Amino acid sequence: MDCIFCKIANKEIPSGIVYEDDDVIAFNDLNPEAPVHILVIPKKHIVNLNDAKPEDQQLLGKLMLTIQKIAAEQGIAESGYRVVTNCGEQGGQTVMHMHFHLLGGREMLWPAG
Ligand code: AMP
Ligand code: ZN
User: Fold this and answer.
1) Does residue 99 have an active-site annotation?
2) Rounded to two decimals, what is the model's pTM?
3) Which of 12, 17, 25, 98 is the most exposed, fewest CB within 10 Å of its CB?
4) Quick check: is 75 in a domain?
């Protein structure tokens, strides 16, 4: 499958990996929008939240707890951070493999644009 994030998960293209286990991989965003900008993805190809199935329930929970762990490792747990998943066209999704942006290290604005 011609999916850039599957290729990152398979190490077919290089990335700055910050965390990996059997189900999840996390790497630095190529165009960071904050001092910490990490993408946390399932290794399994799921297009976006619309595409997640009941059998993905455990994986979705694992992604959230992995983000919690990475935030602590990155030193932004106490200062705070933002977790974003863009879903579909109006959600601003550009890469069609579900990913969670972990953003921190600066004050975040709200509402998001
Ligand atoms: P989204 O707009 O939510 O689909 O986010 C896609 C994100 O993937 C953007 O923040 C891009 O900067 C990032 N991105 C695209 N290609 C790569 C890559 N090869 N390595 C790391 N991040 C990437
Ligand atoms: Zn994929």
Assistant:
1) yes
2) 0.98
3) 12
4) yes
